[in-house]
Amino acid sequence: MRDFLCRECGQRLSFENSLCLHCTSSLGFWLPDRAIYVLDDRDRVQIDGQLLERCANTKVAQCNWLVKWTGMPELCASCRLTRTRPTDDDVDAMAEFGRAETAKRRLILELDELGLQIRGRDDDPDAGLAFDLLSSSQVPVTTGHASGVITLDLAEGDDVHREQMRVELDEPYRTVLGHFRHEIGHYYQMVLVDADARQRFEELFGDPDADYQAALDRHYSTGAPDGWRQDFVSSYATMHPAEDFAETFAHYLHIRDTLDTAAAFAMAPAGSTLESVLPGDVGFERLIEWWLPLTWALNQINRSMGHPDLYPFVLPERVLEKIRFVHNLVLPG
To answer: Cα 61 vs. chain centroid, distance in angstroms?
Structure first.
């Protein structure tokens, strides 16, 4: 994530800011420029001859992104991907919906910066990307992916619920953004793993067509196999080849975004930004050279504050080979 500045007063901004807390300027993020602009008193701004205004989901989804002015309410590139949301009268779910959409915008920005294809349901009705953001407080909801549709249980936005689930499932890490990154991994397996990549995928992860329900039943009855940490980035990755790939893809996104943010604040080399990493094996080797010492330092900082490790994962050689595979899918040499 970049280090944003208010163009009115120079105050540092977060990606999520819709208001400068120093000069009270109204703000909006424009994805094509990946920049935050100061808006006029009608919440509009002129950029390169285009009149822009706030997304129609400004209040509903806490959205600070900009859209082209058409005279009609329009949704931004992120909000357009949401197919289903809670009803307005479900106050608690709508609050969680706003927090989930905030995490989703961070995901969409990273995918855009990585140059990954984002085709919505309008362009591809059968397999385009869409999000169903629903609350299990009203109906049963299972977080998952199916043919481009990502479903998220908005209860994951509640800190207490999420921590209970993390402990129950014996996970070292659980966040809404992490869920989005995992589920988008399933989508990009479908998009990126073609016939040419299939053989290497099977060598690393196994047969993606293996019986999923049988694997799920086995995982929740017997758990991860002994010694799994030598080959998998998480215990959940041991469940099925598709879950292994999704977990690996999520970690690749963790690595890329965290390095990009560290570079923006001079905590990592400038070459480690999302826009500048080299493709292929050479680029991957540099990523890992930067990543391992950074996570060691960040973990020690967290411990100094009495917190658990920021990145509580080990990356043995087999796991690194899997992450390398993802890197070469995203940035082929």
So the answer is: 17
- For residue 57, the one-letter residue type is N
Give me the tens of pLDDT residue by residue for the chain, a chain 333 residues long.
888 999 999 999 999 999 999 999 999 999 999 999 999 999 999 999 999 999 999 999 989 999 999 999 999 999 999 999 988 888 888 989 999 999 999 999 999 999 998 999 999 999 999 999 998 877 788 889 999 999 999 986 455 444 454 344 455 556 899 999 999 999 999 999 999 999 999 999 999 999 999 999 999 899 899 999 999 999 999 999 999 999 999 999 999 999 999 999 999 888 888 888 899 999 999 999 999 999 999 999 999 999 999 998 889 999 999 999 999 999 987
SS3 content of the chain, % helix, strand, coil (to 5): 45, 15, 40
Separation between Cα atoms, residue 126 and residue 108, nearest integer Å: 20
Do strands 149-153 and 130-134 pair parallel, antiparallel, or not at all (unpaired)? parallel
Query: Would you call 302 exposed, middle or buried from its count of C-beta atoms within 10 A (0-12, 13-18, 19+)?
Result: middle
Quote the CA–CA distance of 66 and 317 in Å, as a whole number: 43
pTM: 0.92
Per the CB < 8 A criterion, the answer to whether 78 and 58 are in contact is no
Task: Judge residue 191's burial from the number of C-beta atoms within 10 Å of its C-beta, 0-12 exposed, 13-18 middle, 19 or more buried.
Answer: middle
Q: Please, which residues bridge with residue 35 across strands?
A: 30
Q: How many Å apart are CA 11 and CA 203, to the nearest integer? A: 50
Going from the C-alpha of 179 to that of each of 58, 153, 193, 279, 316, the distances in angstroms are: 23, 10, 21, 26, 23
**Sign of the torsion formed by the C-alpha atoms of 238, 155, 254 and 110:** positive
Tokens of 258: 């965290």
Q: How far apart are CA 301 and CA 105, in angstroms?
A: 28
CA distance 323 to 310: 19
Question: Which phi and psi (to 5°) does residue 108 adopt?
Answer: -65, -40
**CA gap 5, 11 in Å, rounded:** 5
CB atoms within 10 A of CB 286: 16
